[in-house]
Each structure stands twice: as C-alpha cells, then as structure tokens.
What we know:
The protein has helices at 11-28, 32-43, 64-74, 81-85, 100-108, 113-135, 141-164, 170-173, 175-180, 182-185, 195-212, 225-228, 241-255, 259-262, 270-278, and strands at residues 88-89, 95-96. It is mostly helical. It has 2 domains: 6-212, Lysozyme; 225-278, no CATH class. A hairpin with a 5-residue loop joins strand 1 (88-89) and strand 2. The longest helix has 24 residues, at 141-164.
Amino acid sequence: MSVIPIDKANGAVRGTIQSAIALASARTGVDxxxxxxxxxxxxxxxxxxxxxxxxxxxxxxxxxxSWLSVVKKHGxxxxxxxxxxxxxQGANGRLTVNDPGTRRAILALRNDPNAASLMAAEHAADxxxxxxxxxxxxATGTDLYMAHFLGLGGARSFLKNLQANPDxxxxxxxxxxxxxxxxxxxxxxxxxxxxxDIYDRFSAKLDRGAAAVGATGLASGGLSPSDGGGAEIIxxxxxxxxxxxxxxxxxxxxxxxxxxxxxxxxxxxxDTARLAYLLLARLGG
Length: 285
C-alpha cells in the first residue's frame, strides 16, 4: 500500500483527521495516542488509503467483514443506525447488505475520518475488555494492536504464550500469519523471531507512528501518568522495556486489588522492590 508521508499531508486535512480521532477517544475512552499511532501505522493518516492485497480501506484499514461487524454492533450508538439496520448475518455467519447501493455507502464510511475513528475506537474497546478478561491484567496499546493484526482469538493466544514463554518462536505458533508476514516473524537472516521480539517490534512501530504525528505519549500503552505519576520505566539486566512495563502493570493491578496487598508496599518484598526500581522517575533532563 502506498501512503503519503505525514509531513507532506495538507495541514488542514491532518488537523481534521486528528480532531476526529480525538473525538472518538473522548466518546469511547480509548487512548488518543494509541488511536493516533494506529492510524499513522495503518494508513499514514490517509482516509482514502487502500490495500493492494485485500479489501482493507480507510484510515484504519478495515477489511469489509470487520467493518460490517463493528458497524452492526456499534453504528446505532453514533448516528449510523441506518447502516446497522441494513447489515444482516447469514447462516454461515457472513455479514451481508442486500441492497448494492446501501452496501457501497456503508463500506464507503471507512473513508470518512469521523466514522472510521469511532468504529476503530469501539473495536479497540471491545478487544480491550476481552483481552483483560482473558489475561487478568490491564491491556496495553500493543495488546490492542496485536488483536488488530492477528484477530482477537489470535491475540489472546499470542499474549498468553508471551506470558508463559516469551522466548518461543512466533512462527511455530502462527504459521499462516508467518507465511503472510515473513518480515515480522523472521529476521533478515531468516531466523525466527521470539514472541517477545515480535511484541517489542510492534510496540516500537506504534510509538514511532504516534511520535511522527505529534503524539504526547506512548501509543504502545505502557503505564499511563495516572498509574505511575509520569514515571519512566527503567529496565535492567537485559530486560526489554515493554517486558518490564508489562510486569510493572500486572504488579500494580494486583496491588490495587485491596488493602492487604497494598500493605506490602510498607514491608518491601523482592517484587515491590523491583517495582520501585522500574518506576524511578528520570531526574534532571
């Protein structure tokens, strides 16, 4: 897919798109930096972007079935009741629109920044709930992007295996995805990447995308300011930053579960001592 670099985009158009994303974030509670980073990675903030190898189109590159699904579920909440009402599901589970003109109109909404941003945010919110229920921890932006990339079921499997054994090869677990996305699952030398490496590369990709369009925080969704007071995650002993962040977030989730757990902050254990180290704020610059 060919996209126009963001620094070449018209400033007024870019502002309109970012406003649409900000509105979707405000209405759904999904992190703005994540939605902005995802849009930049997927389309270069081009609402008319089209994939050359699939039916994916628009700011967030929804394929046709995924778009019909999220509009059917959430369209009425955002003034798209007419679209949701015209989407039906067949016995085979496939979503269809009987009238060809109406179908074209619904699919064309993928190229409308407001509709695309709202549906992307709702889709992310649905995935966030499912991932958190499955893993028992707060979902990060990278977790949500894994659901966008692998589908929700694939993402849950990926993330559970990542927790259990981060060093195992991703291609062995997801052979079909690896065949279709060799550069993600294999290094330039042909060596299979580990789950941790794949996850970290997605985190970096999201953050670079968000930074390229002026985001004020990480799209990969480590600790938010409310979680860590604006603290910086400082990994050690060769640990990846995203791995340290996932551990710290899970530990914070446990500590917030009740007074008895929080008491351990007053009597440091190895885990809480490590948490304090990871949350050290950068002094000076």
